Amino acid sequence: MHVNISGAGVIVHAKHCANAIKLTEFLSPSEVQQLLANSHFEAPANPHTPVYPSLAKWGQFKQDNMNVAAASELPAVAIKPADRAGYK
């Protein structure tokens, strides 16, 4: 299954570090996560946020603990299943 991964972070030398932290904190609470996730039919990043009802019907998300960086090491191999399935 293909899954997009989204995240937020602040790099050490960010010019506007305090504002970046404020934005990340603003987007993190359950209420905001619910608005964001429900408007895009996605799973929320905050684990305390209820999952959109139609997604919840699919059952509990089973996270793969694979190192995401490792996926970029073999892009030609990783893309083959998507190509075979006609995923564009």
Features of the shown structure:
88 residues, mainly alpha, 0% strand
Explain how this protein is built.
With 88 residues, the chain is mainly α. It has one domain. Helices cover 47% and strands 0% of the residues. The chain contains five helices and no strands. It is flat and about 45 Å long. The two termini are 14 Å apart. The mean pLDDT is 84.
N-end to C-end Cα span: 14 Å
Percent helix, as a range, is 40-55%
Number of helices: 5
- What is the CA-based Rg, rounded? 16 Å
Strand content: under 5%
Order of helices and strands: HHHHH
Say how many strands there are: 0
Which shape, going by the Cα principal axes?
A: flat
Q: How many domains?
A: 1
Structural class of the secondary elements? mainly alpha
The low-confidence parts are none
Overall mean pLDDT? 84
Major β-sheet profile = none
Topology:
Elements: H1 17-27, H2 30-40, H3 53-56, H4 68-71, H5 75-85
Question: What's this entry about, in short?
Answer:
This protein is mainly α and 88 residues long. The protein has one domain (17-85).
